[in-house]
């Protein structure tokens, strides 16, 4: 087993254990007790943000270039912090995938399951091949918005919709959504297009399909947030 796979497995196990203990660490309010697993699920997502944002890794030129990637963020192989960060991310998404399969009906969760599958595949390529890590780590900028996106869910479950905190979070959530989610995906799509000749066809196809799936999903979610928090 590669070190990356062992880190993914360890990350999955750690988040699974944390998920089981979170209800004791953060007891749900009365309004959330009918959906206890969702309360644990959201707080587990918040816990995932800590290591992802603490250090996104330090991609740097260390010698030989990965085949087919000669410039930009794809040109940088692993350093130890990058390996750690890139491996923690799919470990969490695997845990969340399993958690939703066990606790939520498929018709309610298929969009997120589809989203998680794309993320796991794309980060799995970086972890297994030890290539394209810089490009994968750019995607962690999305997690800055996830702080406020998950906080919104926590406030909803705690029945704190009609509060100043919720209103302020809604504004910051939409602002960071545009800057760190939509703009990041747009930059990644543009980079792939401009450097398509430097990336192996199979990897380029995976990246292109991933961007083609993630971009519309995030635009639709932005519309739902805008309609729910500002136009409802």
Helix content: over 70%
Shape: globular
State the separation between the terminal residues, measured CA to CA. Answer: 51 Å
What class do helices, strands and sheet pairing give?
Answer: mainly alpha
Alpha-carbon Rg, integer: 18 Å
Tally the beta strands. Answer: 0
Number of domains: 1
SSE series: HHHHHHHH
Please tally the helical runs, counting DSSP H or I stretches of 4 or more residues.
Answer: 8
Beta-strand residue fraction:
under 5%
Calculate the mean pLDDT score and round it: 83
Low-confidence stretches: 55-79
Q: Biggest sheet, open or closed, and with what strands and sense? A: none
Write the layout of secondary structure elements.
Blueprint: H1 3-25, H2 36-54, H3 80-103, H4 106-129, H5 133-138, H6 142-157, H7 164-194, H8 201-230
Helix pairs in contact: 1-2, 1-3, 2-3, 2-6, 3-4, 4-8, 6-7, 7-8
Characterization of this structure:
Keywords: Membrane, Transmembrane, Transmembrane helix. It is a multi-pass membrane protein. With 232 residues, this protein is mainly α. Helix content is 75%, strand content 0%. α1 packs across α2. The longest helix is centred in the C-terminal third of the chain and has 31 residues. The chain is globular.
What labels describe this entry?
232 residues, mainly alpha, 75% helix, globular
What's this model, at a glance?
The protein is an all-alpha fold and 232 residues long.
């Amino acid at each position: 087993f590669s070190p990356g796979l062992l880190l993914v497995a360890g990350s999955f196990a750690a988040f699974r254990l944390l998920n089981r203990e979170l209800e004791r660490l953060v007891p749900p309010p009365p309004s959330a007790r009918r959906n206890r697993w969702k309360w644990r699920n959201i707080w587990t997502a918040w816990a995932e943000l800590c290591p992802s944002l603490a250090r996104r890794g330090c991609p740097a030129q260390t010698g030989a270039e990965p085949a087919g990637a000669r410039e930009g963020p794809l040109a940088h192989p692993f350093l130890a912090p990058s390996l750690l960060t890139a491996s923690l991310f799919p470990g969490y998404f695997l845990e969340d995938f399993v958690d939703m399969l066990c606790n939520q009906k498929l018709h309610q969760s298929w969009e997120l399951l589809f989203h998680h599958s794309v993320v796991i595949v794309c980060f799995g390529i970086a972890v297994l091949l030890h290539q394209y890590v810089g490009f994968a780590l750019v995607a962690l900028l999305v997690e800055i918005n996830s702080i406020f996106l998950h906080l919104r869910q926590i406030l909803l479950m705690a029945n704190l919709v009609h509060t100043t905190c919720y209103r302020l979070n809604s504004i910051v959530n939409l602002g960071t959504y545009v800057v760190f989610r939509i703009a990041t995906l747009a930059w990644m799509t543009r980079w792939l297009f401009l450097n398509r000749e430097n990336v192996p066809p199979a990897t380029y196809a995976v990246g292109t399909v991933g961007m083609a799936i993630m971009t519309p999903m995030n635009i639709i979610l932005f519309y739902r947030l805008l309609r729910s928090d500002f136009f409802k």
